[in-house]
Amino acid sequence: MSDYEEEDEEIDALPHVVLINHEEQYSLWRADMDIPGGWRQVWGPDTKQACMDWVDKEWTDMRPLSLRKAMEEDERKAREDAAKKSGSH
Fold first, then answer.
1. CA 87 to chain centre
2. Residue 45, preceding bond cis, omega within 30 degrees?
3. 12: Cβ contacts below 8 Å, ≥ 6 apart
4. Sheet order of strands, 16-21 included
5. Which tens digit of pLDDT belongs to each residue from 44-67?
6. Which spans in 1-89 are helix H?
7. Which end of the chain is less crowded, N or C, counting CB atoms within 10 A of the terminal residue's CB?
8. Residue 88 pLDDT class (50, 70, 90 cuts)
9. How far, in Å, CA of 35 to CA of 31, rounded?
10. What are the residue boundaries of the structural domains of the chain, listed by start?
């Protein structure tokens, strides 16, 4: 095992937390580090694997929040347009 692999294992063994940003995107972060601006903790501290499992369960839609909202608005407008067209015939 290389020194690099041993260092990775040591880091993985440290407690981790799950962070979320304003776009509802998640990030794993070591619990001993300051949370960066624009992020807040939503899970942990726990093992890195437990945090990854939590993210896998919770983050079912990888699209950023702004994209999801824009797509929902596009769908709403398309439905309204279709309703107007069907009402005018």
1. 41
2. yes
3. 48
4. 26-30, 16-21, 39-46
5. 999 999 999 999 999 999 999 999
6. 3-13, 48-58, 65-87
7. C
8. low
9. 9
10. 1-58, 61-89
Retrieve residue 22's tokens.
């304003």
Answer whether residue 11 shows pLDDT above 90: no
Looking at residues 19-43, what average pLDDT do you find? 97
pLDDT of amino acid 72: 94
DSSP run (H or E) holding 18: strand 16-21
CATH of 1-58, one of 1.20.140.10, 3.90.820.10, 3.40.630.30, 3.40.1260.10: 3.90.820.10
Is the whole-model pTM more than 0.70?
yes
Residue of 28, 32, 25, 23 whose CA lies nearest to 70: 23
How many CA atoms does the CB half-sphere of 19 hold within 13 Å? 16
